[in-house]
Amino acid sequence: MTERERKQKPAPKKRDEVVEELPPQSESGEKIKEELDEILDEIDNVLEENAEDFVRNYVQKGGE
Amino acid sequence: MALPKVCGIETEYGIVLRGADPNPVLASSVLINAYVDDRRVGWDFEDESPGRDARGYAGDDAMAPEVETHLVNAVLTNGARYYVDHAHPELSTPECSDPLQCTLYDKAGERILARSMEAAPRLLEAGQSVVVYKNNSDGKGNSYGTHENYLLDRELPFGELVRHLLPWFVTRQVFTGAGKVGSEHGAEPVEFQLSQRADFFEEEVGLETTLKRPLVNTRDEPHADAQRYRRLHVIVGDANLCEVATFLKVGTTALVLCMIEDGFIDKDYSLRMPVAAVRQVSHDPTLRRTIEMADGSTMTALDLQWEFFRLAEKYADESGFDPVGGDHIGGMVLSRWEEALTALETDPKAMEGRIDWVTKLALLEAFADRNGGWDDPKIALMDLQYHDVRPERSLYERLVRAGRVERLLDDAAVTAAMDHPPETTRAYFRGNCLSRWPEAVVAANWDSVILDTGGDPLQRIPMMEPLRGTKAHVDALFKECTTPAELVAKLVSPQ
User: Fold this and answer.
1) Domains (ranges, CATH) in chain B?
2) Is the CB of residue B479 less than 8 Å away from at least one CB of chain A?
3) Angle at the Cα of A33 (from B173 to B287), degrees rounded to 5?
4) How do residues B296-322 score in pLDDT, each as one tens digit?
5) Which residues fall within 8 angstroms of residue A53, CB to CB, at 6 or more apart?
6) Is B7 exposed, middle or buried (CB count within 10 Å of its CB: 0-12, 13-18, 19+)?
7) Residue B53 DSSP one-character state
8) Do B402 and A38 touch (CB under 8 A)?
9) What ipTM is given for this predicted complex?
10) Whole-prediction pTM value?
11) Which residues of chain A make contact with B358, given a CB cutoff of 8 A?
12) What is the mean pLDDT of the segment spanning B208-230?
């Protein structure tokens, strides 16, 4: 449970515009996609059969 | 000086009985009975009053939730409560003294549910099984909760708490959200949103938890000395799988509560429309849209989070981290928080394996790219199975095994926490009474244990202080006593 040293952080920029352009697909995003390939290759072994029915039948009573 | 932020998490799990007609109450009972088996000890309801309102009154239209005493209700040797709540199995962690310990017991709770599922077929007919999901919605307008609890000073005016907590709860979703495909409960359509729960909130403040859900819940049931303490019952959180997310959720909220208690937040971050804002933030995975402040200015959720972060940094410099578990844990909260905000601002994907909504979204997007796009029915199934508690069916667990999830906890510690209580709260006393003398513990609840010592009457041992009854307090006592009668005798007249 080691934790690295805390670093000084530059002050964040304030934003005024309502909406900015979406950030371009990040490098880590592309890399993650490639790395997830292995899991996705086997995804059907993990997923329940008949996805549509299974999701439709998942009905819960409200709780709390 | 802020009170120590004793904390805990209650999780209602989604539940399915396979191979039979739907019967969630039966399925939940089977699940818990199978786990607890003959070690079950009943819960004592004497001090339960969930209808009491922290504002000092109950509104005319407020419906106090009912306590269902006839349903299965057990106390575990780790100090947790495991019971049927409405139509769901619910596990409340024992009282924890810091956010990392709370993360540990939350994860141990998942393992208890997984173990329960393995045991359940013993009590079912052939071909039947019970499956549980650690999520908060069925995607069809039905939600079930994950509630956090924090110890607060009774002196703190409730209005002060509400004022600061509303913007806090609206904006912390950026790292607490567990992610959800689509929207429900009348919310405008979206492909994906940060939170499982945001669509369900309709009020700013209130007593209910099942309808007209409020962002700040006023249930006033301290389970401790009511003259001194309040228990803040937080109902806006999601159930998290990522350990970093749970740690951040509890750690940052504990720090913010310390600041509120100490009157440290000198600015007013009130939002113009908090209920609308909670959905707006949840519905914007770009994290770029602004929300309107009460004074007419606008900020993004991340801007507001940075404001809270900078205050917390300053607060810690001046007051230290004692109430949140000391320098190591407190420093870890701040550094993790800063790391999360920095990444979310520049490259959210960098939080894959640490924040649930990011982790889930990365997997779904990768799938959609390779397959039938976002309309593939498997997208919704993956959303559900991310939360499947069976290790072989859980997509979250797949990611863990692939080394894509950052762990904060040691697996051996998680396993130990399934049976052993925290050593630093009164849960230690409760858990040890149960493991030592299971036959003698007639009932237990958060603030008392009732023992049958062989004579009349039953002995009720009050535990009104959450931080008394720790290992340091009672270990010597336990070592001296071989029977519950001896324990009671020593407690009544020490020496």
Assistant:
1) 7-414 (3.30.590), 426-492 (no CATH)
2) no
3) 25
4) 999 999 999 999 999 999 999 999 999
5) none
6) buried
7) B
8) yes
9) 0.90
10) 0.92
11) none
12) 93
